[in-house]
Amino acid sequence: MDILTGSFFMYLKMIMGTLKTELIQMWPDLIQKSKDGGVDVIETYVFWNLHEPVRGQYNFEGRGDLVGFVKAVAAAGLYVHLRIGPYACAEWNYGGFPLWLHFIPGVKFRTDNEPFKEEMKRFTAKIVDLMKQENLYASQGGPIILSQIENEYGNVDIHYGPAGKSYINWAASMATSLDTGVPWVMCKQVNAPDPIINACNGFYCDQFTPNSNNKPKMWTENYSGWFLAFGGVVPYRPVEDLAFAVARFFHRGGTFQNYYMYHGGTNFGRTTGGPFISTSYDYDAPIDEYGIIRQPKWGHLKDLHKAIKLCEEALIATDPTISSPGPNLETAVYKTGAVCAAFLANTGTTDSTVTFNGNSYQLPGWSVSILPDCRSVILNTAKINSVSMTSSFTTEFLKEVGSLESSSLRWSWISEPVGISKADAFSKYGLHEQINTTADRSDYLWYSLSIVDEDNAGAQPVLHIKSLGHALHAFINGKLAGSGTGKSGRAKVKVDIPITLVAGKNTIDLLSLTVGLQNYGAFYDRVGAGITGPVILKGLKNGSTVDLSSQQWTYQVGLQGEDLGLSSGSVGQWNSQSTLPTNQPLTWYKTKFVAPSGSNPVAIDFTGMGKGEAWVNGQSIGRYWPTYIASKSGCTNSCNYRGSYSSSKCLKNCGKPSQTLYHVPRSWLRSDSNILVLFEENGGDPTKISFTTKQTESVCSHVSESHPPPIDSWNSDTESGRNIGPVLSLDCPYPNQVISSIKFASFGTPHGTCGNFNQGRCNSNKALPIVQKACIGSSSCNIGVSVNTFGNPCQGVTKSLAVEAACT
Ligand code: GAL
User: Fold this and answer.
1) Which of 22, 91, 119, 221 is catalytic?
2) In testing the pocket of ligand 1, which one of 87, 91, 155, 222 has its CB within 8 Å of the most ligand atoms?
3) Is the bond leading into 159 cis (omega within 30 degrees of zero)?
4) 338: Cβ contacts below 8 Å, ≥ 6 apart
5) Is residue 152 among the annotated active site residues?
6) Does CATH number 1.10.10 belong to domain 399-416+563-593+601-688?
7) Tens of pLDDT, residues 740-775
8) Number of other CB atoms surrounding residue 602 within 10 Å
9) pLDDT, tens digit, 9 for 90 and up, residues 420-470
10) What is the pLDDT of residues 667-689, one digit of tens each?
11) CB burial of residue 165 (10 Å; 0-12, 13-18, 19+)
């Protein structure tokens, strides 16, 4: 522990959560909800392309206020793990690197390359200095207890050969030389040189060991779910499995684990990577995209954190003694002097019983029981005692600004010209790669060509186009003739579009677009996009073929509307007199609306639109793409948490649009008049979009009479915890709310889930009045789950209490 003793209190067990640096107005609430969930440390990436969008021009304002973020975490009494990288991954555009880096002469990313190393060092030092100036490192009395350099380079280093190894050694000594006074980690870097701590990332890290006995066992990314792509199904991870993974880690000597993500939020603007990562980065995290607690995930993890912390004295005092009392059974005892804590694990998928210290313990399959005194089970990872919640989106009929009655919004529009319309267009022979041409200033690049071929007037050839991705639209003589789209994991596009050539000039305008730049893989920074060809006319008269690839094409980076600044809604000649064009490609739309009242989170339902980007009061809420439908198969409504989890194990939303709802942060909305601007690429009907607000409908809890007593009642000295018995607790999610009605209550054998509970054969008719009396009018209530409270409606059966309540 040499490295860590230098940095004082670090030798604690830490539960952490990753927050993406979201909107500044959301920070305090998100941080507080993390703290309430039992998180000690907030981990955040530092996105280079956010903080230095132009070389030498830094942005630490608004969402980029890194110092403000770190201070907000400190103000809540939590610590910070600052993952400077500067490579991040994170499904973030270009993995976090700024595009200008790609254009530095001779640069090669993430290898032993002087121009790259110089820039990486400059940025890393810049961030470290910024933190030091504000005394934010723990060595200065601040909250930052840990920093990360690079990210998962061990996954790709083999492709960089010996230069990769010298790069990692350089990165280690460069970071160390910055003298932060707190440790550095590299994740997934088996050969991380001393004193850098190599950390584990994955769905499970209990089997991980660091590369030296002097280093603590750390887990930088425990995936609370998984990311979503446009065109993909929605992944989720059952909390029983997540809790099992965490408990197993501490069972086997872990010191420090981080949820990736604890809150993933929204990738506003053009910040998503991929390509094809959706705008929502909800991640099935304990705090959802909108900042609302996700139950029972948040609550069960909160209970788990309490249970682990009850063992803290033993955990930090000694290493575990591990034994295997039977097949798939493993016990861990942390014992020193009078202090003793134990973990009992069943790593098989069927229920089992373990005898430990002369007592017999039931262990559900794929679960860990935690015994803070080596005798009493305070928590089993498969038994959820926390509240669950249902929430829903309610459509809001918005008034247009200034109107009294009308519920429909009034729209105006501008048509984006097809093909070349800007003065900075240029011509070049051949087909050129897109990212090198646009430098990612826009998603869009026009490739335009005019041909005159009188011999083929009236011919109906096929236009064959090959593109590196990510999607394209082909316009012939100003009309959309066809489109092609790649998908997550296969960005390339190949299309054959039937066209008709007219006499005289024929114009071929190809609009190529990116949907977030690659963020992962060896040499990912050089993965290209755009129409690199060939572009061929096949099946001309006489069966001939013409390859247009090496012709002189005219290029236009971005849209005219982007240059004009139409997204602000305050410039441009917007049409509103004649009929609103619908299902027209390349159309800008604008409306004014009054924000939904109240304080519930707001989203726009883009059903009816095709693909594009949306701005509210000039702020981009991201790319929308409700027409990209997820595959029909592979989903399950009730994913069995037992057995190893993978990102493709538990999927939902098959056959539906990957993302229909798009978060509009409350802080971007004005109370009076708001402007919504859309750029629609494919064609859609803006009158079909609707505004929704998200609210919690019910809070529920379902607790068995065989459940351990509540963790808060635990007191190992008096053994009071063991006498109390199980308790069902309900808490309203928002301050100032009270329980207004009990929608369901049954003691017996009720079944179902929150919002869908049903009575079983065994049911005490006293349950409803007892729960009503105990709960209505209070913001929270506790009810003992036992026959003492409800009488015994059926002998010889293990009974449970299920309650659904409404909070208002
Ligand atoms: C990891 C990476 C994270 C994120 C995650 C998947 O490999 O370190 O930044 O990309 O995968 O969400």
Assistant:
1) 221
2) 91
3) no
4) none
5) yes
6) no
7) 999 999 999 999 888 889 999 999 989 999 999 999
8) 24
9) 999 999 999 999 999 999 999 999 999 999 999 899 999 999 999 999 999
10) 999 988 999 999 999 999 999 99
11) middle
Q: What sign does the dihedral 304-310-312-318 (CA atoms) show?
A: negative
Quick check: 46 and 6 in contact, CB under 8 A?
no
Domain borders along the chain are 8-292, 319-371, 399-416+563-593+601-688, 426-558, 695-807
**pLDDT band of 399, cuts 50, 70, 90:** low
Determine whether the shortest distance from the Cβ of 783 to ligand 1 is under 6 A. no
- What distance in angstroms lies between residue 520's CA and the mean position of ligand 1's atoms? 8
Atom of ligand 1 minimally distant from the CA of 89: 9
Ligand 1, atom 4, lies closest to the CA of: 90
Give domain 8-292's CATH number out of 3.30.420.40, 3.30.160.250, 3.20.20.80, 3.30.365.10. Answer: 3.20.20.80
Ligand 1 centroid, distance to 271 Cα (angstroms): 15
Domain 426-558 architecture = Sandwich (2.60)
Q: Tell me what the mean pLDDT of segment 622-634 comes to.
A: 97
Q: Is the CB of 150 under 6 A from ligand 1?
A: no
> What is the residue with the minimal CA distance to atom 3 of ligand 1?
90
Q: Is the pLDDT of residue 3 over 50?
A: no
Is the separation of the CB atoms in 515 and 472 below 8 Å?
no
Q: Ligand 1: distance of its center to the CA of 519 in Å?
A: 9
Residue nearest atom 6 in ligand 1 by C-alpha distance: 90
Coil, strand, or helix at residue 220? strand
Q: What is the pLDDT of residue 709?
A: 74
